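Narrative of activities, Objective 1.

The group set out to show that a structural description can be obtained from nothing but a protein's sequence at a throughput compatible with the screening campaign. Below is one input-output pair from the validation batch, recorded exactly as produced.
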Amino acid sequence: MKRLLIVSFIVVAFIEGINAQSSFIQKRIFLPKANTADSRDVIETTPDNYVISGFILDSATPSFQQRLVLAGLDQNGNLSWRKKYGSNNFNYFPYMWSAGILIKKNNFLYSAIMVADSNYQQAGVFIKFDYNGDTLWQRKFYGTTSEQVFFIGAAPSVDNGFLITGAIQTNTPTFNNHPTVDLYLLKTDADGNKLWDKRFPRLNQDETQGGYKVIQDSLTKRILIVGSQDIGTTYCSNLLILDSLGNKISQRNYSGGAGGVLVDIIKTKDGNFAAVGGNNYFQQIFGMGTTKSMLVKFDTAGNLIYKQEYDSLVVVNAFNNISELPNGDFIIAGSLGTLVQYGIGINDILRIVRTDKDGNLLWKKYFDNYTDSTNQDQLQGMNLTSDKHIVFTSICAGGEPPPRGFMFYKTDTSYCDINSVGCYKFTGVEEKSNEFQKIISYPNPVGSLLHVVGEQNELDGSELEISNLLGEVLLKLHYKNEIDVSQLTNGYYILKIITDGNKGFYSKFIKE
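Output recorded for this entry:
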């Protein structure tokens, strides 16, 4: 059975954390009576004050019910307050592709999420909060008794109201014994009251589509929705362009290959639009699909200006948040797999990249909270602050035992400090890709023994060296496929191999 929904059950608690260096902040926030907690978004309300939002499994209830939590943080990420919402008959939960669940408008916060009620019917809810996390109103939106409503993304409309997108799933099978899933758009007034709604089915009822983020152009009044459409056995990126009343103008797919998804969209300073997500490929690793992160830029008619892809083709490689700096550069966030493609476990890490206005890569920086092969990070809710720093949060997908806390990150003025627990800037051989070919080394991060994978008959007799970010060579030896790096201090390193035939190979790894 095809289903659009994959639900992550999540939670909230108190505070404990680690300060990396100076103004780079990385904190783990434990909330009272939370068995596990997953943070989904963080946003600056007033300068140097933040609200972080997510979901907990509430240990105060016998069956660990799902709750929505908002928590206030000060400039150092310390907990100021927290508010918990939900009951045994009203369980809040998010959709996995949510690119951020908080909207800031006119000194208030808004959130479009989902609930399951006492009758196990799923509804969309739209909530207005003040900056202290208190609810000012909550609107509930149901489909028919046989339908499940998914609220995934929301944005202000040009007439002071709101637009909410997502999907509606009909549980009664209607085609090939599958439920139908239609992309959904709801228009409300400033107080969250419904004005109209629209459904957009695929022509083939066996296929589904959903909206993940919505935006309205202030000049043309056009509404643009990004998301995915299910075609056969794969998802393809989806851009739906509507007029101001929700009537369809056109629909675009920028994926190519085996499909993809678009998760976030912004209007750029030049009047166009930029969206990010992932592009799927037919190549599989251990039976799992591979992806590359994707940035596309297009005009209000959906005409493609450019499409860029980033990093290696691996099992997990996608963007889910994008912001624009005053000079037109983009700050883009997502996650990247490091171990699955080697068949030795999972350890997805967080990634922030900066590109110029044309999508050309300026730098990449990585964050990782787990160094084992069972847990991985998924970046959530990246936003820029009033002084153009970056704040973001993450969730742990894996086996971290409870209690599990919210995660809060804030960059310094250089967007990151280089330290053993936080952030690593990739430089050096990155700019020499025309001279050096990539080679595989794992695990990454590594503790003591680094494995190097290559054609042995080509690498035998080669010289191998490991250098730091300053280019200082710290280790030099004849090539072998297992290297003891336990004597290196924690940090980021570049491994280079030069063969007798003057071929160059390189790899990058983190020592922890």
